[in-house]
Amino acid sequence: MIQQGQALPAATLSQLTKDGMVNHATAKLFANKKVVLFAVPGAFTPACSDAHLPGFIVLADQLKAKGVDLIACVAVNDAFVMKAWAESQNASEITLLSDGDASFAKALGLDMDTAAFGGIRSQRYAMIIDNGIVTQLNVEAPNELKVSTAEAVLASL
Predict the structure, then answer these.
(1) pTM for this structure?
(2) Which residues are catalytic?
(3) What are the Cα distances from residue 14, in Å, to 11, 59, 72, 137?
(4) Pairing status of strand 34-39 against strand 70-75
(5) What domains sit in the chain, N to C, each tagged with a CATH number?
């Protein structure tokens, strides 16, 4: 598993924008920025839609006031699903990214097999990234939502 102080692995994350599909190289996307990146097991799932993403939407301004340049959410869903989820949640302040084949989650060592639920997914976590380096990593225990919430991230900034 990736550790604090390590650089993010090279990967490509997708985003469907009004201008079409954008493939972001992690090295470029996270360069020269302070980023809060949080991962959810799946878009439109109960805890993710009812609590995790909404917390970051509500606290986006406060996170940015603490020097955060980008707030991003990643999930092992395709970019079309992530765009629909962003629209359904009014998540205009959050960049929703697709890790469609779970290659980013695997490179981080934060993938999990949910079997019949959805196969390989990302563990739930939040990290603070400063110029591509992980400065804080909070990985949730199974079936919990405590250390990766927007409130927990805000308290640590």
Answers:
(1) 0.96
(2) 48
(3) 10, 24, 12, 22
(4) parallel
(5) 27-156 (3.40.30.10)
